[in-house]
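Quick start: load a record and inspect it. Here is SUF system NifU family Fe-S cluster assembly protein:
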Amino acid sequence: MSSNLDALYRRVIMDHYKNPRNRGILEDGSHTINMNNPTCGDRIQLTLKVEDGIVVDAKQEGEGCSISMSSASMMTQAIKGKKIEDALKLSKIFSDMMQGKEVDDDIDLGDIEALQGVAKFPARIKCATLAWKAMEKSLKEENQD
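Running the structure step on this input writes:
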């Protein structure tokens, strides 16, 4: 990856960290989950509002490193308005990206693409995936009903 692209990705990550999207708690959320990463202290509370199989709103609150918090911000933006199965599919794509696997170029990841460099730092992968794992767990429990 070129140093210009690295710099751009760093700016995108820091923008989401300093100006988190969808920060807060949904009072009328249908799903709330708390998760943490005990190895580094990252924690998240994710609240989702799901209606008719669609994630109509998502909020996140927590504390942690820039990778963890920016990933949560990006994830909530990405899943809003998506069907549950599409949100879970996006999570699988993100997980593959974090494992250094090739991601289909036809898929527009938007700002999430800025996190692809995290795959080079195994200790930081858990930071990047915390919010995604919370979303998966919450939505998969929904599908069990």
